[in-house]
Write a structure and sequence with these properties.
Layout (H helix, E strand, L loop, with lengths): L2 H17 L12 H4 L1 E4 L4 E7 L3 E4 L2 E14 L4 E13 L2 E14 L4 E13 L4 E8 L34
Parallel strand pairs: 1-3, 2-4, 3-4, 4-5, 5-6, 6-7, 7-8
Length: 170
């Protein structure tokens, strides 16, 4: 074999290696929940109406009505102003307005919820604040179809032994 034929063989091998590039990785398809998640980042302001959002994460400022949502998460220093009906709400920042939580409301240290608040279950960690018109929902509300409105635990049409206790921190 001559030096020229060795050089051609190496070039051919090099071309074949260059043509065998690794296939690009295709990311896995996001799940339905991930596909319906909206994150409003820090220093972002959003206003309007938000519908059919599975999870809303607020790191910036949102002034909106939120309906047909499973979860609202307000990070610090996030601010949500408006009306929201959700299954779960976790607050590290600030919520101001009308909030109905058909499941669990959790207020972390430094978090504050101000306004007209209705909840099925609540957890306020030390340092969390809750103020305004506050009431618990009737326990049976969680199993109702979405079209039916929540009933307050203290209302006259609630079950006679309904728990009307409230949990507040100042």
């Amino acid at each position: 074999m001559t030096a020229e034929s060795v050089s051609q063989a190496n070039n051919t091998t090099g071309l074949k290696a260059a043509q065998r590039r690794p296939e690009p990785r295709v990311p896995a398809a996001p799940s339905a929940v991930e596909g319906r998640k909206l994150v409003v980042g820090r220093e972002i302001c959003l206003s309007g109406e938000i519908k059919t959002c599975e999870t809303l994460v607020v790191e910036g400022r949102v002034e909106a009505d939120l309906n047909d949502s499973q979860s609202l998460e307000i990070s610090e220093p996030g601010l949500f102003k408006g009306q929201a009906i959700v299954e779960e709400c976790i607050v590290h920042g600030t919520f101001e307005g009308e909030l109905t939580v058909t499941g669990r409301l959790v207020i972390h240290p430094g978090g504050q919820v101000i306004g007209k608040i209705r909840y099925a279950a609540i957890e306020i960690l030390k340092g969390g604040r809750l103020s305004g018109d506050v009431d618990s929902l009737e326990a049976s509300f969680a199993g109702r179809p979405q079209g039916e409105g929540p009933k307050l635990a203290h209302s006259s049409d609630a079950a006679p032994n309904g728990d009307a206790s409230q949990s507040q921190a100042g």
